[in-house]
TrEMBL record:
It comes from the Bacteria. This is Uncharacterized protein.
């Protein structure tokens, strides 16, 4: 039982480390906003 919890703790730590490195590599994933304006001409029949 002790061996199981040791492996479980090690696996949790390893996955946390991989997630931390991946987040540091990818960085901020928030979208970049920009205002876009374009003139539109409407014609009515």
């Amino acid at each position: 039982m002790r061996k199981f919890f040791g492996r479980l703790l090690l696996m949790t730590f390893a996955l946390g480390l991989v997630g931390f490195v991946a987040f540091a590599y990818v960085g901020d994933l928030s979208p970049h906003y920009a205002d876009v304006s374009e003139k539109v001409t409407l014609t009515l029949k």
